[in-house]
Amino acid sequence: MWINSCFDGGNIEVVELTGDRTATLAIREDTAAPFRQWFYFRAGGTKGLPVTLTIANAGEASYAKGWEDYRAVASHDRRDWFRVDTRYEDGALVIDHTAPVDVVEFAYFAPYGLDRQAGFLAELQVRDGVRRTSLGLTCDGREIDCLEIGEGTRPCWVIGRQHPGETQASWWMEGFLERLCDPGDSVVAELRRQATFHIVPNMNPDGSFRGNLRTNAAGANLNREWQEPSMETSPEVYVVRDRMIETGVDFMLDVHGDEALPYNFIVGPYGVPGLADHVLALNERFCEALKAANPDFQTEHGYPRPSADGANLTIASKYVAHRFDCLSMTLEQPFKDSAITPDPQYGWSPARCAALGRSCLDALASVINDLRPA
Prior knowledge:
Elements: E1 2-4, E2 13-18, E3 22-26, E4 40-44, E5 50-55, E6 73-75, E7 82-83, E8 85-89, E9 92-98, E10 103-107, H1 114-125, E11 130-137, E12 143-149, E13 154-160, H2 168-180, H3 186-194, E14 195-200, H4 205-210, H5 235-247, E15 251-258, E16 265-267, H6 277-293, H7 316-324, E17 327-334, H8 350-365
Parallel strand pairs: 3-5, 13-14, 13-15, 15-17
Antiparallel strand pairs: 1-4, 2-3, 4-10, 5-9, 6-7, 6-10, 8-9, 11-12, 12-14, 16-17
Helix pairs in contact: 2-8, 3-8, 6-8
């Protein structure tokens, strides 16, 4: 058996290979930062063999509680990502699998590489009304892609992958953008008439390529940089924030994944100092509309709400709500299965991420007319 992670998004270190059926592995830390949880690797020479792969340092992960009731994903063809037998015991994550093929890929969640992203954006940019631009360069010199769609006066911003290991955001983006570019969708037509969308599908391409969980190439957690970003350590936030100031923001959604909670939920702008009263009402309406549009979304479980004026304004959605006095939210998706709508074979999956992305347009349509008081 051989194991390798030297590719886009890969992350694993081989501690020991024992024969052709067992391996002891370790998750590598993020670039210049003490985060670890994301893993993605290939195992070869395993056809027909029951293999056991032990990630020995799983107990040292940033969110060790995330391993409870968690099952890793695997693929034989890089298209179908299914759940495999996984157990967490004595601080180690143990994966068991017997594959009918020579090479198997294993990951924390279905990977979404930069090559797929480039192909998807190239396909979108030839569609009517889609404008593609670069807002600037990352620390490693990659472009920060932004799509502009729509002709309306309401500036609506959607961003994802601030935390590169949260690949749910990219699969969500596929569903959201595919529907937003559908010329036959009447809901979308009205949204594009009223709003101009500014969409950054991947805020952190450097971290995505390097196989990081939460940070960029400089070791910065981008979702803690919004009050004081710098071109040296967090250029991704710096240039996006500058563009937001140019366009204004009436609505913002930041798409993420949560390691521990087996639910889809919204983190609203609660605790933001001085926020207009109507904004919190809009947040509730958006959530109720999303729950009606998609059975995978719920409002009972989520993060505790901060105290009055207690929001952390270094976080994107909180900063934007405060800076622009607008509806600004974070969407969280699970790495595990959805507890309210379980799927034993796939758990929370790319297809369900994309479906939730499509549904978010219905939720936005329910509040678009009231984002700003007349």
